[in-house]
Every structure is written in C-alpha cells, then in structure tokens.
Design a protein that fits this description.
The chain is an alpha+beta fold. Helix content is 23%, strand content 29%. It has two domains: 30-144, Rieske Iron-sulfur Protein (3-layer Sandwich), CATH 2.102.10; 160-368, Naphthalene 1,2-dioxygenase Alpha Subunit, Chain A, domain 1. The longest helix has 36 residues, at 301-336. The structure holds FE2/S2 (inorganic) cluster and fe (ii) ion.
Length: 378
C-alpha cells in the first residue's frame, strides 16, 4: 500500500470535495434497488434512487419493469396507479397507460391519439443473487458487471441472516467509508464485532480490475460475540480476520471469520457480510445487508435457527444503533460547517483512500467526451 504523505494529502483533498457536495454519481453501473422479495404481486412500488423517482412492478412473466415515477402529462406518480393486463401501468390521475418499455400505449381521451412526448424512461433491471439490480446510466447495460454475491445462491436458509434494510440520513459516501474502515469496530462495536486487540491488525489493500480488497488480520484475539456461538468452547483465543471486497461504487462483501492460530478461511468459521448501498438522495441512502454463515453448521436445526435470528438481531443493532447515530451526526457536523472540511488521514484510512481513487477515475472516465467513453472496469 502506498502510504506516502503526498498521496494521503491528495486523497484527503479528494475526499473533502466529495463529501462536500456529491451530486454526481457513477451512472453506468449496477445499483441494488431492493431485495427480490420486496416486490411481490402486482402492486407497483416507488423508490427514489440517485435522486430519481422510479416505479417498479412485476410483469406477467415475473420479470421486473422500472420506469420514471412521474407521468409526463401532469406529473402524477405512476406508482399510485395500477398494473393492468399486458404489463401496462395506468396513471392514477387521467388514465394514460404505459408499457414496460416506457411508451404510452393508451390515451382514453379525445380520439385516443398518443403524443410523441408521452413516454417515460425505462431502466434495465436484472434479478440476481436474490436482489433487484438497476442500471442507471445511458450506456448499454452490461449484465456481466453485476458484482458476485453468489454466496446467497442456493444457500441453506438457516445460514442466511435476515435480508435486512435500513435507510440512513447521510450521504452514500459517508456510509461507504464507515464500511470500508473496519478499524472502527474496535470502538463502535467493541464486544460484538471487535475488541481493543483488533486495533493492532495487520492491514493490506490491493486493487485488481477496479475492485479493491482490504484484508485485516488480528492474532491472538478475544472472540467477538458474533463468533462466540460458532466457536467450540475450548477455543478461547483466536486469529480473527476481515477480508473486505469493494466493487465500485458501493457494493461491499466482508468475509469475517475466526479460527485457531494461523487459521485462514479454509480452516476457520464465520460469515460473508453483504453490504449494498444505493444513494437515495444526496443526504440519504438505501442500505441492504445480510450475512451468510460458512463452515461449521451443527446438526441441531433449532440451534442453527436460533443462532441465525440472534446474529440477525446483533447485526441490525450494530448498524442501526451503533453506526447509524455516528454517521448521521457526522453528516450534520459536515453540513453545519458548510461541507468544506478536510479530514485528517490516519494509517487506517489507506483502503478508503484507494477506493476513493478508483471511484474518482471511473467518474472521470464516465464524464469524458464520447470518443473516450470505452466501458470502464469494474
Ligand atoms: S397526470 Fe397522468 S394522465 Fe394526467
Ligand atoms: Fe460499523
């Protein structure tokens, strides 16, 4: 990892300006809109993403349509309308009907002529890894760029914690920086996810194809509560590690685990923690999270299920009651200062800086003139 003072100073300035007014988002990429199970039946569902109002509904074949949630006639919310046979969404105000491609297909007024401007934007949506992914950009959607969350696919339900959701009143960047910085677990989540001894973790960061991986390994630790029930009683001290994978702009997978001295993921036990952020507005974020348990599963189904529920509650508590208040207060403090603050950088910020640089590069590429707009990784 490059830890030169100059590099950190440059990154600090970058982070400052992004925190001050992040109104430009990476668009030609996949964002999580919601869990698959959130969209059921024929009821349309409204959700604002990247400041854009969007209505989602299921088509007759089960696939998902996503349209701008604003009728082009008098701007009523299409999400207040109803889905009709033929995958038509009817505006609740004067009854224009729109197809899943966003084109108006029926005008009940006058002679029924359809003005050319009577259409709304349709967004590509793919259902994968039990999530609905939406492509927000204008370039062709590339399904191969959906990050890998196959840990959900085919997993025994007893291994998967509640597929949970929080809305936080802070910028996506602040919440993302919290997740990228696992050193805070020693303070914010002491006893649950980490302890004082995890401050001394060895940290490594590397980038490959626009994806950043940050590893933290702590030797001879107390066992955090999240892993206590997974760990044989005779094991009292462990190696603890976190391997965090970040896919731009805001999808994170944290493999966290513990094991005996020198253990790695093959010998230890723990969870794949899934953290998926999507900006709602510049000051609010949709946060989808869950964890998938790996290795060690006992034959006692009731015990496994009880543990699943306990860990689900523990994780929700950690994010909603421990991280949430700090991050939202951070946002208020930044806004109160006019947003023009420069963070002091510590060694623990190395991974965060690396991700900020990747994001900066991708944003620059996206905003480059058309001739330079080759699809960028990841
Ligand atoms: S506002 Fe939608 S049809 Fe009039
Ligand atoms: Fe946290």
């Amino acid at each position: 990892m490059n830890t030169s003072t100059d590099t950190h100073l440059h990154a600090a300035q970058t982070l400052s300006s992004q925190t001050a007014a992040r109104t430009v988002y990476l668009r030609n990429t996949w964002y999580v809109a919601m869990w698959s199970r959130d969209l059921v039946g024929t009821q349309p569902l409204a959700r604002t993403l990247l400041n854009e109002p969007i209505v989602f509904y299921r088509k007759q074949d089960g696939q998902v349509a996503a349209l701008t949630d604003r009728c082009p006639h008098r701007f009523a919310l299409l999400s207040m309308g109803r889905v009709l046979p033929g995958d038509r969404l009817e505006c609740p105000y004067h009854g224009l009907q729109f197809g899943a491609d966003g084109a108006c297909v029926h005008n009940p007024h006058g002679g029924g002529a359809i003005p050319p401007a009577a259409r709304v934007r349709a967004y590509p949506v793919i259902e994968k890894h039990s999530l609905l992914w939406i492509w927000m950009g204008e370039r062709p959607a590339d399904p191969s760029r959906i990050p890998d969350y196959s840990c959900f696919d085919g997993a025994d339900p007893v291994r998967v914690t509640e597929r949970d959701y929080l809305r936080m009143n802070a910028s996506c960047e602040l919440v993302m920086n919290n997740l990228l910085d696992t050193s805070h677990t020693s303070y914010v989540h002491a006893g649950i996810l980490g302890g004082g001894d995890t401050v001394m973790a060895q940290t490594e960061a590397r980038e490959e194809g626009g994806m950043v991986t940050i590893s933290r390994v702590s030797q001879d630790c107390e066992i955090p509560a999240m892993y206590r029930d997974l760990t044989p009683p005779e094991v009292t001290r462990t190696t603890k590690w976190n391997v965090m994978r970040w896919n731009a702009p805001s999808c994170i997978l944290i493999q966290g685990g513990v094991g005996g001295p020198g253990a790695d993921a093959a010998q230890g036990w723990g969870y794949d923690g899934v953290h998926l952020l999507t900006p709602e507005t510049d000051r609010s974020v949709h946060y989808h999270f869950a964890a998938v348990r790996w290795n060690l599963l006992t034959q006692d189904h009731a015990h496994n299920e009880a543990l699943r529920q306990k860990i689900s509650a523990m994780r929700r508590f950690a994010f909603a009651e421990q991280d949430g208040p700090i991050i939202e207060a951070q946002q208020r403090a930044i806004d109160a200062a006019g947003g023009q603050l420069r963070p002091v950088m510590l060694s623990v910020d190395g991974g965060l800086v690396r991700c900020a640089r990747v994001l900066e590069r991708l944003l620059a590429s996206e905003q480059a003139p058309a001739a330079d707009q080759a699809p960028s990784s990841p």
